Structures are given as structure tokens and as C-alpha cells.
Amino acid sequence: MQPIDTILDSITPDAVQTILLPTGWGQGRALFGGLTAAIAWRHAVAGAAAGQQLRALTVSFVGPVLAGEAVLERRVLRTGKNVTQIAVEIQQQGEVVLAALVTYGRARDSVIRITDTPEPPSAPPAEGLSFPEVAGLPEFTTAFDYRVTQGGLPFSGVKSREFGGYMRYRSLDAAIDEGTLLGMVDAWPPALLPHLTELAPASSLTWTIEFPAHLPNFSTHDWWHYVATIDYAADGYGHTHAHIWDPSGQLVAISRQTVTVFA
Q1: Is there a single domain that holds both residue 77 and residue 204?
Q2: Any idea what the Cα angle at residue 208 is, between residues 189 and 97, rounded to 5°?
């Protein structure tokens, strides 16, 4: 398995470029969505204005992204004094398989400041459940360590609206950035899966993740805290939101997903 930071470093600033998507990061018949979202983010970076930081990334997983040749295309929709909006597509065989809207914004003085976002109560990572190494786990999960401290393991029949715990890269030990964080966040299975008792496929349709502040100086091998909540689930679709905290307990990202489950 090629490390995710090596994959991201291979992307050039060119607005249109052809890349080779690696094997080893499979999620069913497609590539892991966290990797493809991170690729879209990295491609957008070259279009951002100086002094602006990543504020939000919205991804639509249009179709399965496969290992092999792909075209990256970036368009700067608008660059303003404070905000830049960038569209990124991943194309394969002449069709769009992933579309992303990436928003960068400059910090400004404001009289409004609401930053008290404490972590929810949770057991420490040492007391959490790790994912069992069994047949059927997606290929990409070998890159990550998980400790489930809220809800239950996938397909355990635990009927909780909350699901989460701690996450880190198993081998990669590097300074965190938005791309590697995207990989960690999307590495968690949908929060609907612990409700099931038998294996069933599920995948993200759309994903929006917001970054309220600069990422702190921690490692990909530190434990990061993740808790997802099911807002609504019916008719084969689920709507969830999640919060992500750094190892010091500071909120670093807010995530929302629409997922589909075939059960």
C-alpha cells in the first residue's frame, strides 16, 4: 500500500493533469472515498489565494473511482478579497466520477466568537474496541487504527444514534494536514452499520466537511477523536453529522454525510 502522503505529493499544480490512482486502497470495487477526496483537496490547493485557509470541502461521489489512469481538472470559480471558490473533478474514461467544491476564506475581525466545543465524555483509547481482523473488511482499513468507545462495532446490532471513538494512521507518522485528516475522518464506517447484524454494503453519496480553524501541530499517529450522530435514516439512506477533535480536545472539523445502505 502506497502511503497517502506520497500519493498526494505526486499531484502537481497544473490545472489539468493525468494521474495514476494506486491499488491497495480499495473499498469494494472502488477506491477509498477518503483518498479520492484528499486528492481533490490537494489539487485545489494550487488555486487558493495567499492568506486564505481551507474552510469547507463538499464532495459528490458521482461514480466508482477505480485504480488506474484518471484526469484531474481544476477551475477557480471566483477569487474575491476574502473567499475563493474552486471546483475540482476526477474523470475516468471521459466521465466525471467525483466532483468537489472547495472553499477557502481569509480570517477577519468579528464581534462574534463562540468557540466552546468540548469533547463528549468517552473512555480513553486503551479501553476502546478495535476493529477485528476478519474477512470482508475494506482493503483501505489496514492503513488505520480504530478504537470504538461510543456505539458498537459495525454489524453488531447496537441501536445507538452515536458512533465513534479514536482514530490514527497505523504506520504513517507525519505532521497532520487537511489531506491526511480527510483520510482519517472518512475511514470510519457509516454510523448506520452498527445497527445491522449481517454484512451489507454501504457508501457515501455526498460529504461536506468544514474546518473552523487552522489544524494544530499534531501527528497522523496521534489519537484523534471522532463522534458521528445519526440525524435521520430511512428508505435506504442515512443523514449523519460528526465532530472531530485533536489530541488536546480542540474541535478541528465538522462533517456531514448522506450515505446509502443496502439493508
Answers
A1: no
A2: 80
pLDDT band at 5 (very low <50, low <70, confident <90, very high): very high
DSSP letters for 85-154: EEEEEEEETTEEEEEEEEEEE-----S------PPPP---GGGSBPPP--TTS-GGGGGEEEEEEES--T
Is residue 107 predicted with pLDDT exceeding 80? yes
Distance in angstroms (rounded) separating the CA atoms of residues 167 and 111? 35
Which CATH number fits the domain that encloses residue 14?
Answer: 3.10.129.10
C-alpha cell at 90: 476526477
H/E stretch holding 181: helix 178-186
Q: Are 173 and 259 found together in one domain?
A: yes
Q: Is 106 exposed, middle or buried (0-12, 13-18, 19+ CB in 10 A)?
A: middle
38 in a structural domain: yes
User: Does position 204 have pLDDT exceeding 80, yes or no?
Assistant: yes
Please indicate, yes or no, if residue 118 is contained in any of the structural domains.
Answer: no
Which residues 6+ apart lie within 8 Å of 127 measured at CB?
Answer: 147, 149
Q: Which domain holds residue 42?
A: 1-106
Residue 229 located in a structural domain: yes
Which candidate, 169, 137, 132, places its Cα nearest to that of 148?
A: 132
pLDDT band of residue 233 (cuts 50, 70, 90) is very high
Confidence (pLDDT) at 66: 97
Is 114 within a domain? no
